[in-house]
Amino acid sequence: MRNVYSKLALSVAVGAGLVLSAIGGSGTALAKKSGGVLNFVVGSKIPSYDLHQETTFGVIHPIRPFYSLLIRVNPENPSSPTDFVCDLCEGAVPKGEDGFTKYTFKIRKGVKFHDGTPLTAHDIVATYKKIIFPPEGIPSARKAFFKMVDSVSASDDHTVTFKLKFPSGAFIPAVATPFNIVLSKKDLDKNGFNWHKKNINGSGAFTFVQHQPGSFVEGKKYAGYHHKGQPYLDGYKAIAAPKMAVRLQAIRGDRAAIEFRGFPPKARDDLVNALGDKITVQESDWNCVLMTTPNQKRKPFGDARVRKALSLAVDRWGGSKYLSQIAIVKTVGGVVFPKHPLAATEAELVKLTGYSKDINASRAEATKLLKAAGASGLKFDFSNRGVDQPYKVVGTWLVDQWKKVGLEAKQRVQPSGPFYATLRKSKDFDVSIDFNCQSVINPIADVTKFLGSAGNNYGSYEDQPLEDIYDRLLRAGTEDEQRKIMREYETRAISDQAHLGITLWWYKINPHRSYVKGWKIAPSHYLNQSLDNIWLDK
Amino acid sequence: MYKYIVKRLLLMIPTLIGAAILVFFLLRLIPGDVCELRLAGTGLYADPAEIELCRTNLGLNDHVLVQFAKFVGGFFILDLGDSMWTGKPITYEIGLRFQLSLQVAFMATFVAVIISIPLGVISAVKQDTWIDYVVRTFSIFGIAIPSFWLGIMIILGLLIITQAWFGAPWMPPIEYVSPLEDFGANMAQLIWPAVATGYRYSAVATRMTRSALLEVLREDYIRTARAKGLLEKIVINRHALKNSLLPVVTIIGIEFAFLMGGLVVTEQVFNLNGLGKLFVESVLNNDYSMTQALVMIVVAIFVFTNFVVDLFYAWLDPRIRYS
Amino acid sequence: MVVISESLVESQVEDLSEEKTWGQVAWTMTRKYPLGAFGLLIVVVMIILAVFANILSPYDPEANAFEHMLTPPDLQFWLGTDQFGRDILTRIIYGARTALFVGFSCAIIGSVVGLILGVASAYFGGRIDLIFQRVMDVFMAFPLIIMALAVVSIFGTGTQNVIIAITIPFIPRCARVVRSSALAIREIPYVDAARALGFTHTRIIMRHMTPNVMAPFLIMLSAFVGQAILLEASLSYLGLGVQEPTPAWGLMLQGGAEEYAESAPWVAIWPGIAISLAVFGFNLFGDALRDALDPKLRQQ
């Protein structure tokens, strides 16, 4: 067993070579200038400031720059899913000892929190104890990420040791998750575990100035920041703008320089047309994908033929060409983030049900399967979330795709609250849109989504063979073996059984003012948001 | 008169209680809750135990009557509690936005008045001529245009026109600055929504001015004034307009009350951090405590405005007091 | 007494028609209320579009045709196509159906229920009236968006639920106006006489009081149609209205107006004009109706 997990740890490392397309970006030849205030727009709201308890990018973008992490995704190479570097630790990210069950971090000396308190190993321990073993009554949104952790302790002021119950390749990516901001032990001891919901005291590149709820968060440069010479900015202002049109217009009218989540393609084109070289565009595949989940408790979706027909009706290759012009989706892919070494190649993809390039043949087969299952002309309820990009665009497209094989889907769009209640609680849907969106890319962990037993799977099915394949996937040693088993898993999950139907992987487009330098796009809107390496060329 | 005031004041109570009951139970009928949304809303795996914990901490697992008692009781001890979404005191969150909403409501009302009174007067004096028709067409068009569409067109128009004329696109600021701090920036942001809303709301007031004036113009004393050979201008300004203003003032007052809580769509388009935007966000977040407080404020403003209007009428017309 | 009152109402009605042909009446009204006539014309055109939508429009309003996506207006697509390649003219024509259906349903249900409640409240008076008025106050002051969200969440989305959400706030507004007119009528002796004759409440309310409050009722009804169309558009903008792929004007604006306002302005402009024009038409007509029915203005 021990050996298995050590191999899993290795498996994560194989993704290191992965490089994503990033157009534009920082002008490396230019000397970095200091000064200036970066205004950016955020399309979501801030719940509390305590990132340990929150899950939205609406709090990452404005609040994360006040804090540091133990390790983070390399800000100079954020497109790689496995390139982690030390933030508060020193040297390289530890490789793991004792059969990958012990990780020792050397903590940087001389780091101070914004209130002047020195940062030591004890602060890191207190932070991770709050995340992994929170006291009763204190929520922690990512406790489940650290199921493998047995203990965390400090042997002296500058050494932190994590002991794992079993080796796990998911450990290091979990530590690098940007929500794991390091808090001061003094604050936790003195003010309790809820103090950070409303107060900020970090060791990040910026110090908190003010927050006007619903309007903006303001930060200013922290002179004592531990990455010397950084940050380049004097400060930043994160302005709330829930409407996409406002965010777009804000960049155009230079009320804001950048938006870190992503814009639809037409918005990019409008900006480029209006402003020419004053706008720089960075693009990347995005570690998010919309899926369709048939409710297998409902007739006739328990029948694999019907589920396959749902997938066969969808023209992914054709849809990619057109939807990528109107929505934030683009890449045809399977269960693994496209272009990752473990992802299916195009030749492998086209063999899967619903991925054939001959859409007419697929649709003919769908019609045949539906007829065989006695479900021709089936009418069903299709639950969707009331968010334009990309939910409603993809939803409208799917309804039309299904219509082409005689299926009549009635789209029921609900605001996020009632939508999740339908999906998770009442399960009152025939087919629903579902969503997988992760921060750090970790395919072997991410594909648990397709297991009927997974907590975030809403298809209401049990599939033991699939669970068995996953078990083998965990034990697989070499990359070749992993790839092979991953194909098997993929074929079972989305082709033979068609438990879930994958639409198109998201595509992140970040048009920004060209004077913003140093920021590099990552495959997730959660990553690379410490803002310490951004500078303004004005 | 005092008896009447007391009676009217007492009548406000059942309305407020009714609204409290309605909002409380209606919100709980809407599926979904703030904790689900917070922990599962981003598509990540959410531990059911964490969701339960969050619910317990917010008091959502208390008996529904206990929750109701806390909500209603809060108004008596003047503590509205904390927002379930941000955890900040509701009075603080609302206070921030109130200033902006109040200012926009004043500015929009001002715009509505300066549009509607002159237009209404012209329209009445030139009744059934082409001028009357043009004025009415203009004002009715104001109600017909969807406000969010007008807003989008205004902002886009500004961006395109400024780029064409000055080379760089300009748009109104997207964050609020108090007028005391920077009057110019404040106006640059708020003038557009105020004009868009004011134009829209001027339609009803224009109509009211016109018909009230027409009515007064038919009264005997106006005929007398005219017969005396007074200038038409003096007749209109000094005699007729003054006497026809009451219903106009009333309608403007009522519209002001609607503006305070009703700018839901316009605030979205112009990114104004006002009560309307807070309202939409709280409803969509299933933030019960905040939504309840906002509804009660909107209802209270509405009821109070009606009260003042009634009082005004009663003061003018003694018959109402005794009926 | 009752007989007298009924013939009195009839004679009033006759005043308007006076043995003239429909054409003559129409001509007189057009001369007297040119704006109203123009409004009516818009409304009639809209009704024709809605009724004959399948004959008038050459395309399918719902089917995606990506090969034509975002085509500017040309000879094939007079008003251009949207992001799914659907003909905008077709969707506007079919959208008239949705708009009229929502507009008329909300207006008729809202004002009829309001009429009955308002007259009944005035007729019974006393405590019933008092309680009833408080209930109406609550609904009138209650924010529409909560009501809409609650209705949509509880009953699901779809046109009929949008209608419910919009109708609820209309009822108290109509009831309030009707009640104040009805209060005045209740004081007229013939209602007492009808009671003395032992007529049932229902009969007195329906036969004797209701016809006499028709003027405010019709005014409210005509005003509601335009308001309902506008409210439907606003609800769609907030994502609570009619859902895709149903062709509806508000929905066409919601997805399209924001993203394509510049690169494909036709997506944003035509539905906006359609809404404005329709509401404009109903309001002009309603305005003229108000002038025609308002006794104070009629005297001259």
Q: Which strand-content bin applies to the residues of chain A?
A: 15-25%
Q: What pair of chains forms the biggest interface?
A: A-B, 58 and 56 residues
Instruction: Give the % helix of chain A.
Output: 25-40%
Integer-rounded radius of gyration of chain A: 24 Å
Give descriptors for this structure.
heterotrimer; A: 538 residues; alpha+beta; Dipeptide-binding Protein, domain 3; 16 helices; 18 strands; globular; C: 300 residues; mainly alpha; MetI-like fold; 14 helices
Structure description:
The complex is a heterotrimer of chains A (538), B (323) and C (300). Helices cover 30% and strands 20% of the residues of chain A. Chain A has 16 helices and 18 strands. Residues 1-28 of chain A have low confidence and may be disordered. In chain B, 79% of the residues lie in helices and 0% in strands. Chain B is flat. Helices cover 76% and strands 0% of the residues of chain C. Chain C has helices at 2-17, 22-32, 34-51, 53-56, 88-124, 126-141, 144-155, 159-186, 189-196, 201-209, 214-237, 249-260, 265-293, 295-298. In chain C, helix 2 (22-32) crosses helix 3. The longest helix of chain C has 37 residues, at 88-124. At the A-B interface, strand 9, helix 6, helix 13 and strand 15 of A face helix 2, helix 3, helix 5, helix 7 and helix 12 of B.
List the helices and strands and how they pair.
The complex is a heterotrimer of chains A (538), B (323) and C (300).
Chain A: H1 2-13, E1 37-42, H2 57-63, E2 71-73, E3 84-86, E4 102-106, H3 121-132, E5 149-156, E6 159-164, H4 171-176, H5 185-191, E7 206-212, E8 216-221, E9 235-240, H6 244-252, E10 258-259, H7 265-275, E11 279-294, H8 304-312, H9 316-326, E12 329-332, H10 346-349, H11 359-372, E13 379-385, H12 388-403, E14 408-414, H13 416-426, E15 431-437, H14 443-446, H15 464-475, H16 479-496, E16 501-513, E17 516-517, E18 535-536
Parallel strand pairs in A: 1-9, 1-10, 13-14, 13-15
Antiparallel strand pairs in A: 2-3, 4-6, 5-6, 7-8, 8-9, 11-15, 11-16, 12-16, 17-18
Helix pairs in contact in A: 8-11, 15-16
Chain B: H1 2-29, H2 34-40, H3 48-58, H4 64-76, H5 90-125, H6 130-144, H7 147-166, H8 183-217, H9 220-227, H10 232-262, H11 264-269, H12 275-284, H13 288-316, H14 318-322
Helix pairs in contact in B: 1-13, 2-3, 5-6, 5-8, 5-10, 6-8, 7-8, 8-10, 10-13, 12-13
Chain C: H1 2-17, H2 22-32, H3 34-51, H4 53-56, H5 88-124, H6 126-141, H7 144-155, H8 159-186, H9 189-196, H10 201-209, H11 214-237, H12 249-260, H13 265-293, H14 295-298
